[in-house]
Design goal:
The complex is a heterodimer of chains A (about 90) and B (about 325). Chain A has two helices and three strands, in the order E-E-H-E-H. By secondary structure, chain A is an alpha+beta fold. Chain A has a single domain, classed as Roll (Ubiquitin-like (UB roll)). Chain A has a three-stranded antiparallel beta sheet with strand order 2-1-3. Chain B is mainly α and about 325 residues long. The radius of gyration of chain B is 21 Å and the shape is globular. Chain B is about 65% helix and about 0% strand. The termini of chain B are far apart. In chain B, helix 6 packs parallel to helix 8 and helix 6 packs across helix 10. In chain B, strands 1-2 form a two-stranded antiparallel sheet. Classes of the chains: A alpha+beta (about 90), B mainly alpha (about 325).
């Protein structure tokens, strides 16, 4: 069996002004063919105006086991949100 | 298109077991799933959950891909340019659906080549519906209306299935699927309103596709031992019989609306249940098709294997082209 094409993650910008968003993956032999496969697979219905493809192997993901260490410290820092501060009703535009 | 989890009748007495998992991890997993949280690829999951998903998602992907064959053979014979463009777009969508699903299964640690090999060697199943032949143009109408209709009925709840990549693939697929059903119904509508011969052709297609479509939802709940666990793990959101009943209830009036008759003498409206009662399904036929005795099962696999083998040079050429370009880029 011949070599399986590498996997690429596909990101589509729906329209200018929005960020690229992950939509799925394709297999392709190289970057150009990955763009072409992504175009055929993920933009058949005017879903986007721009594509990014990234080798899946090049993506570094956080470990769900580290979730608490990484994200829980934010939970007790409510003072980072504007609603933490009480301002009298009659004070406007703040 | 879609598949339910399929197994041979003799396989069905072996429900997947959950023993030998770390009880604390398992309890945490069960709690997350029960709270409708999504499970993502890097999360811990029980081996049985992973295996069930790989089997179900890859069967689903195979069904999309094999599903291109019965319709593909009518592309060159579509009765007008409009019908031909529509059918081409639909068949292309099915290929795309196969890709989304293979990619979702790959996040569970299986490879594309492994899955394709499992299909081609007959180890993996695909929906029984595709082992019936498409004899006339009306069959293309019946497939869009009934087979894609049944698929939608099953796939809508799967948009909330507990495995994130599978649920997201389902969202995309459902978005694309509704034109499939409508173009099929439109074909049936045109034939049913046409000459007596055309109407007969439409009725004949409904007669042949009705029961196989009901079988698409899989065996009755009492013969589907993994359903309970799959429902508990939110892999399935509803049972085979529940979805089948909903399909009958919405489809019968659609047939009546275009003057076609559902081929079931036992079909009656049950006022008390607010649903149609329908006749018994020939499960022996279903299990025979699952075993590979479908009318065109051999033809389907032959076509798949040939396409794969004859396409080998394309895959090799792409690799050679990529290597050449990488080599040139390195030399610059």
């Amino acid at each position: 069996m011949s070599k399986e094409w590498p996997l690429w993650e596909v990101f589509v910008r729906a329209k200018n002004g929005l960020s690229h968003r992950h939509v799925g993956s394709v297999h392709a032999a190289d970057d150009r063919m990955a763009i072409e496969a992504a175009r055929d697979t993920y933009t058949r219905r005017m879903e986007g105006v721009s594509l990014w493809v990234v080798r899946s192997a090049d993506i570094v993901a956080s470990d769900p086991g580290e979730g608490a260490a990484l994200f829980e410290p934010a939970a007790d820092k409510v003072y980072r949100h504007p609603t933490f501060y009480s301002i009298p009703e009659h004070v406007k535009n703040i | 298109m879609y598949t339910t989890e399929l197994k041979d009748k003799n396989q069905k007495s072996a429900p997947v077991t959950t023993v030998a998992e770390d009880p604390a991890k398992l309890a945490a997993f069960e709690a997350r799933v029960a709270a409708d949280d999504f499970i993502e690829p890097k999360d811990w999951m029980p081996e049985a959950y992973r295996k069930t998903l790989v089997r179900q998602i890859s069967q689903h992907a195979h069904s999309e891909v094999v599903g291109m064959l019965p319709e593909g053979n009518w592309i060159t014979r579509a009765p007008s340019l409009r019908r031909k463009a529509v059918l081409l777009a639909k068949v292309q969508d099915e290929g795309g659906h196969g890709l989304y699903l293979y990619a979702a299964a790959e996040t569970l640690g299986t490879s594309r080549d492994e899955m394709i090999e499992a299909l081609h060697t007959g180890r993996a199943k695909y929906s029984t519906i595709f082992n019936y032949p498409t004899l006339t143009w009306a069959d293309i109408g019946a497939i869009g209306w009934l087979v894609d209709g049944a698929a939608i009925m099953n796939q809508v709840p799967l948009q909330r299935t507990s495995y994130g990549p599978y649920a997201r693939a389902m969202v995309r697929i459902c978005k694309e699927e509704s034109f499939h059903q409508r173009q099929g119904y439109e074909i049936m509508m045109a034939l049913a309103g046409g000459s007596p011969e055309q109407k007969r052709m439409a009725q004949n297609a409904l007669d042949r596709w009705w029961w196989p479509s009901l079988m698409m939802f899989g065996p009755p709940d009492e013969n589907s031992p993994n359903t309970a666990q799959s429902v508990r793990w939110r892999i399935k959101r509803e049972t085979n019989d529940e979805i089948r009943q909903r399909f009958v209830d919405v489809t019968v009036p659609q047939a009546e609306a275009i003057g076609l008759k559902v081929p079931d003498p036992a079909l009656t409206w049950n006022e008390a249940r607010g649903s149609y009662d329908f006749g018994p399904i020939d499960w022996e036929e279903f299990y025979a098709v699952v075993r590979g005795e479908g009318l065109v099962a051999k033809e389907r696999m032959k076509a798949r294997v040939e396409a794969w083998e004859k396409g080998a040079w394309v895959r090799e050429a792409a690799n050679a082209h990529a290597a050449k370009r990488a080599h040139r880029a390195a030399a610059e």
